[in-house]
Each structure stands twice: as C-alpha cells, then as structure tokens.
C-alpha cells in the first residue's frame, strides 16, 4: 500500500502512477488511497482517520486473495500517517514493514527549509536551490491552520481565510509541475485571474483590496517578501511552544510530532531520503533514525531529490561517489522488495 504525499493531482500524479505501475509490473499488488487532505495539499489531523479507513478497505480487498498483511510505503508528508498506522494497536498487526521516503522529523523546520534551502547545523553550511512554487503551499497550510497567522501576521480579515486558501489551491493546481511553468513569473496570468476571483469574494466586506492583492501576490512569490511573514510566524510558534501560555493553535498541531509515534512503532522501519531533497532536508532522516528504537534501516541517496531523479549535471558531479550511490540504490530496491512480500 502506497500513501501519497501532498499533491493537488492526488492519485493522478503521473510520477506516482509510474512508480506504482513499476511495482505492479514486478508482480506486486499495489493499493493507493485518495487521501482528501493530501489532495487539498493541507496537513490536517483527519488524514490519520482517512489512512485508517484506507487500511481497512485495502485489507478487505487482499483478504480475498488469502493475505492478511502488507507492506506500507509513505511519501513525504504522509509519513506521519504511516507512523500513526505503524503504532496503531489494532492495525499495526497487519503491517509487515513500513518505509518512509522523504519523511519529516520537524514540520516547522521543513517549512523554513522549503523557502530557504538552508540546512541548519551543517558544516560547512549547505544550501540547496529550492522551488519558489513551494511558497503557496506553505501559505495554504499556515492560513488554513492558524487564525493568528491570518489576522496578526499577514493582516487580512479572518472572513477571507477559506477563500484565500481555495484560490491558492487553484493556483498550485494550475502551476505545479507544468511543462511551461518554471518560476512564479510564468504564472502571471493564472494569478491575475484567481486574484480577481478572490477580490470578488470580498466586495461586500470592509476590506483593504490593495492589502489582499499584495498578500496574495506575496504568497504566490510574484511579489518579494512573502517569506518574511512566514519566518516571523514560525519564530513566534517556536517561542510559544516552550511557553506556559502555549497557544491552542500550537497544541492542535502536536499530532505532527513523529517522535511519540516512532517510539511506539510496532513494525520494522526503513527510511529513505534524497540528499538533494528541496522540501524536507535530508538530516531529518537521521533525526527519525535517532528517535527509533525498533529495527530500522536508513538510506541516504544523491540520485533523488524530493519528487524524482536529480539532473544529469548533478549526477556527473557525483561521479566519484557513483559506486556507493549504486550500492545504496540496490539496498533501497531490496527494502522495497521486502515490502512486497506480505505474509499469508
């Protein structure tokens, strides 16, 4: 069973479809649930319940073939749902092994990294080139989950919260991984149309239209400075998380902490991560490994980033380390093969 990451195409993401077809061609029975929160590209705790329902349905399908367990492969943001399932007192007995690809250990650090590409505490400091089209998804998640961010940090009315998020989701749906879109400047027409829709939603409100338009353009990375509000808010959350007067908003996001889940894990764990991942920094794989007390293997590879294979130029730069990379890739393939050998 494969749990997809955040993507507006859901199970129709061509890369996900290709990956699962490769697995199926090798003789593996593959199930991919359409997780609503992942398709909306917003992290909500309901994904845990959705994942539980998906497992129960998948079990009902494979039982007719004589199986009562399976391997679970989780992509990026769905790693938290995978860990939840692996620690679940009833459902974990049906999971033979869990594999996280590009999973996170600290969601706040991941958001910051997705905007800057700076890997903190690395020596020497490592900085990756990030995708500027990731910023709208960062905004969507903060706007949807934190009213404080809406009102106090980007200074737009709370009544616009839902409309703002919906317009950003439409923007992401029309711009992510499209062959003619490589930078926010390529999305000017898309953003303009969606902005007009957003402004129409607030015609009856006492709203500063110029402020709304400015924030929307910043969220789409068309205007500079959108990262500043996010950094300020993440600094605020870090301060509040250690404060006695911890905000209700911060407490509601505790479900995103993988540590208690990984320490309660009932199944063997494999962790894979691309060294050039530009959404979740690869040192977080080491952090997940350090949290684990179960039978865990880790694979760090320079052949993949967050969403696919690295460029030819990047491959050539790693030529001297290619034998080690190939050895790591073979080990990852073996780990995947183990997922496809459920018990009867």
**What are the secondary-structure elements, in order, as H or E?**
EHHHEHEHEEHHHHHHHHEHEHH
Number of helices, counting only DSSP H or I runs of 4 residues or more: 16
Number of separate strands: 7
Helicity range: 40-55%
CATH class category of the largest domain: Alpha Beta
- The averaged pLDDT comes out at 87
Overall morphology? globular
Structural class: alpha/beta
| Rg result | 21 Å
**Second rung of CATH, namely the architecture of the largest domain:** 3-Layer(aba) Sandwich
Number of domains: 2
List the helices and strands and how they pair.
Layout: E1 2-3, H1 14-25, H2 36-39, H3 46-62, E2 70-75, H4 79-86, E3 95-101, H5 107-116, E4 118-119, E5 126-127, H6 135-145, H7 147-153, H8 161-175, H9 188-201, H10 209-219, H11 226-241, H12 248-252, H13 259-263, E6 269-274, H14 283-291, E7 296-301, H15 312-317, H16 322-339
Parallel strand pairs: 1-2, 2-3, 3-6, 6-7
Antiparallel strand pairs: 4-5
Helix pairs in contact: 3-4, 6-8, 8-9, 9-10
Concise synopsis of the structure shown:
The chain is of the alpha/beta class.
Features of the shown structure:
Rossmann fold, 2 domains
3D architecture notes:
- The chain has 16 helices and 7 strands.
- With 344 residues, it is an alpha/beta fold.
- It is globular, with a radius of gyration of 21 Å.
- The longest helix has 18 residues, at 322-339.
- It has 2 domains: 2-105 and 258-339, 3-Layer(aba) Sandwich (Rossmann fold); 117-252, no CATH class.
């Amino acid at each position: 069973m494969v749990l997809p990451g955040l993507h507006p195409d859901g199970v129709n993401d061509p890369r996900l479809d290709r990956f699962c077809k490769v697995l199926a061609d090798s003789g593996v029975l593959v199930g991919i649930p359409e997780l609503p929160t992942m398709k909306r590209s917003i992290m909500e705790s309901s994904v845990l319940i959705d994942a539980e329902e998906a497992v129960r349905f998948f079990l009902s399908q494979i039982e007719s073939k004589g199986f009562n367990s399976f391997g679970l492969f989780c992509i990026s943001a769905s790693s938290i749902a995978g860990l939840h399932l692996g620690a679940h007192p009833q459902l974990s007995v049906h999971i033979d092994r869990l594999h996280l690809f590009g999973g996170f250990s600290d969601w706040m650090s991941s958001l910051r990294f997705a905007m800057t590409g700076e890997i903190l505490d690395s020596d020497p400091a490592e900085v990756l080139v990030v995708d500027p089209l990731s910023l709208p998804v960062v905004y969507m998640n903060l706007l949807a989950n934190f009213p404080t961010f809406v009102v106090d940090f980007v200074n737009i009315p709370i009544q616009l919260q839902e409309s703002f998020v919906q317009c950003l989701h439409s923007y992401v749906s029309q711009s992510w991984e499209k062959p003619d879109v490589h930078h926010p400047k390529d999305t000017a027409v898309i953003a303009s149309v969606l902005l007009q829709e957003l402004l129409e939603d607030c015609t009856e409100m006492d709203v500063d239209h110029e402020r709304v338009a400015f924030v929307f353009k910043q969220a789409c990375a068309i205007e500079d400075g959108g990262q500043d509000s996010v950094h300020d808010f993440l600094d605020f959350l870090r301060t509040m998380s250690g404060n006695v007067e911890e905000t209700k908003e911060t407490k509601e996001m505790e479900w995103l902490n993988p540590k208690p889940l990984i320490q309660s894990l009932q199944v063997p764990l494999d962790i894979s991560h691309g060294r050039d991942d530009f959404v979740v920094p690869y040192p977080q794989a080491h952090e997940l490994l350090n949290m684990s007390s179960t039978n865990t293997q880790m694979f760090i590879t320079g052949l993949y980033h967050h969403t696919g294979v690295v460029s030819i130029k990047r491959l050539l730069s790693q030529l001297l380390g290619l034998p080690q990379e190939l050895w790591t890739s073979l080990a990852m393939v073996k780990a995947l093969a183990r997922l496809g050998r459920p018990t009867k």
